[in-house]
Specification:
261 residues; 7 strands; alpha/beta; 7-stranded parallel sheet; globular; Rossmann fold; single chain
């Protein structure tokens, strides 16, 4: 059955590597016109080249999403070059592994950076994309949140708070757009093999005084971490015509780590 994604303009933030890149490549393979956003030009160039070599349609824009003016600049350029965004995937994020500390010692600047990228940027992108989606009576907003939007991450106050906020923002969007043809949902990954998660694994191993292999073995009830490609089928589904009745939901993709919402 067709996903209905052919020629849909899809904007994916944080798409230079990891989960964002995997989703970009998969949606491009489904026929979407993909726009990838990240800070690293080299990574973006590689993603676009990979997609085009496979016969897909992709362009890239470099942006630092800690800058509050970046979302408006990105959206303006996407409209100019491709057209209105029909599928918005808010994936870019700052992880707890970048500066983990107990709350009493937490770095205030890191808190502000985490909120800017993890929560403020999705808010601004969604606010900018929604009017055209509502007018077209079709749109998809997908938040790549985290299981830490439901359960806490030790020494990760900013990450935990921002991901809880991201899920809350998604629910408000879903409520306010219900019946318009626009849906909003969240994917909540557990431990996935990405550069960001690897730094967290190293931190947890050092903190607990155990080998990396032990952290890996106990990461999920399945006895392993996940891989970015395991996140993509849910992204395709939520973006598709077949998910028109699904909104306001947050889906754990976590190897059974969190067994309730």
């Amino acid at each position: 059955m067709s996903t209905g994604l052919k020629n849909k303009v899809t904007l994916i933030t944080g798409a230079g590597r990891g989960i964002g890149r995997a989703i970009a490549e998969t949606l491009a393979a489904e026929g979407s016109r993909v726009v990838v956003i990240a800070r690293s030009t080299d990574e973006l160039d590689d993603v676009v080249a990979t997609i085009k070599q496979a016969g897909g349609d992709a362009m890239s824009l470099r942006a630092d999403l800690s800058d509050p003016d970046a979302p408006a600049q990105v959206m303006s350029e996407v409209r100019r070059q491709v057209g209105p965004v029909e599928i918005l995937i808010n994936n870019a994020g700052v992880g707890s592994s970048q500066n983990p500390k107990p709350l009493v010692d937490f770095d205030d600047d890191f808190w502000k950076l985490s909120m800017a990228v993890n929560l403020n940027a999705p808010y601004l992108f969604s606010k900018l994309a929604l009017p055209e989606m509502i007018a077209a009576k079709w749109g998809r907003i997908i938040m790549v949140a985290s299981i830490n939007g439901k359960v806490p991450a030790l020494h990760g106050a900013a990450y935990t708070a921002s991901k809880h906020g991201m899920i809350g923002l998604m629910k408000v969007i879903a409520l306010e757009t219900a019946g318009t043809g626009v849906t909003a949902n969240a994917i909540c990954p557990g431990p996935v093999r990405t550069a960001m998660n690897q730094a967290r694994v190293v931190y947890d191993a050092q903190r607990r005084g155990v080998e990396l292999a032990e952290i890996e073995r106990t990461a999920t009830p399945m006895g392993r971490r996940l891989v970015p490609e395991e996140m993509t089928p849910m992204a395709v589904y939520l973006a598709s015509e077949g998910a028109a009745c699904v909104t306001g939901q947050s889906f754990n993709l976590d190897g059974g780590l969190v067994m309730s919402s």
